[in-house]
Amino acid sequence: MRVGIVNDLAVARETLRRVVTAVPGYVVAWTADDGDEAVSKTACDRPDVVLMDLVMPRLNGVEATRQIMQRSPCPVLVVTASVSNHFPLVFQALGAGAVDAVDTPTLNPNGAVQNASKLVERLAKLEAALAGLSGSAIMPLAGTSSHPADLPPLVLLGASTGGPEALAHVVSAFPADFAAAVLISQHIGADFAQGLVQQLAAWCRLPVRVAQEGERVRAGTVYVAATDDHLELSADRTLRYTPNPKSSPYRPSVDVLFTSAVNNVSRPGVAALLTGMGHDGAAGLLKLRAAGWHTVAQDESTCVVYGMPKAAAEKRAAVEVLAVQHIGATIVAKVNALKRRSHAGISGTDPSA
Fold it and tell me: Alpha helix locations (H) across 226-323?
């Protein structure tokens, strides 16, 4: 794997070079000491991944990421001195198209690299995704399809590259008295899930919380997958996490969440697949549509990366393909329609509606 390194500190560039070259098969394609240089070098020599610092002179990591994704898209991994101290910037970078974020490794007084394991793990995960390992081989779930009387309408959201910003747009449209429970699967490291929850909460009128193992979903609440395992919805409307499929490089997998709803809930809801690299979620969205759910894919013009929604559109998995600024309002309207149908005693929806 060819890696571009961007950091304004020479010692940080050297540390990252040592980490990269210590992994068999990894090479440094180039280094850059600011965002402008990174944008230019990516355009001339696109690597498999760019390790992007956040705080730099001239052009910071957020804007450099945005320009790279617009001009010469490739995976960007934020590597900054302290993710926790810079999370607002990290959130902006993820919205601009970065795939993940990790703290920069350091050198100890003896010159040895320390705290590199998380970066190496992130690179291995990304390498697996680039190799085309599929996250769509979903394990069947036990149990039968059901809908307890108190199960609220469900909204499922899946996203990857550029997802935090897209999710913020969508959830900002939900009213304070929203009748649905909202489940989110966003490809993001588990250590940043709480930060994502906090950022979404700033945009949303509903309470936004980390999805907890065994928790029962409730109307008017947004639940965010928060581990490196996959979030599922079980037949008794409780949430659970599973490591399967272990081969999936997409974690948490959107396909796993979507498929669990198909297998375990007979009452149709609304699902949307947002911006992201790869094809995770497309197969699950198709299953949801076939089961009567109203399914939406984000359109190309508003995606940071038109990968996952494109795969869904090609499978005809989406009833509608919409700009991100219209998805939230459409979801609210469809949930309200589902509630009216439920009160009238009508079950199911027309998958072609």
Answer: 254-264, 282-290, 308-314
DSSP 352: T
- Which residues does 127 contact at the CB level (< 8 Å), separation at least 6? 1, 48
CA nearest neighbour of 299 among 279, 280, 272: 272
| CATH code, 154-343 | 3.40.50.180
pLDDT in tens, 36-45: 999 999 999 9
Q: Where are the beta strands (DSSP E) in the chain?
A: 2-6, 27-32, 49-52, 76-80, 100-103, 106-107, 113-114, 154-159, 181-186, 208-210, 221-224, 230-233, 239-242, 270-273, 294-298, 320-322
pLDDT tens digits for range 79-118:
999 888 888 888 899 989 998 889 999 998 888 899 999 9
Question: What pLDDT does 71 receive?
Answer: 93
- CATH 3.40.50.180 range(s) for the chain read 154-343
- For residue 25, what are its two tokens? 């098969």
Residue range 2-130 forms a domain whose CATH class is: alpha beta
Asked if residues 154 and 232 have their Cβ atoms less than 8 Å apart, the reply is: no
User: Using one digit for the tens of pLDDT, what is the confidence trace for 265-320?
Assistant: 878 999 999 999 889 999 999 999 999 999 999 999 999 999 999 999 999 999 99
Return the bridge partners of 27, or none: 2
Q: Is the pLDDT of residue 349 over 60?
A: no
How confident is residue 145, by pLDDT bands cut at 50, 70 and 90?
Answer: very low
CA–CA distance, 240 with 252 (Å, rounded to integer): 12
Q: How far apart are CA 213 and CA 227, in angstroms?
A: 10
In angstroms, what CA-CA distances link 208 with 17, 167, 176, 233, 333?
A: 39, 12, 12, 17, 21
Residue 297: how many CA atoms within 13 Å on its side-chain side? 30
- Our CA angle for 148, 244, 236, nearest 5°, is 10
pTM: 0.80
Active-site residue list: 160, 187, 280
- Residue 124's nearest CA partner among 235, 234, 25 is 25
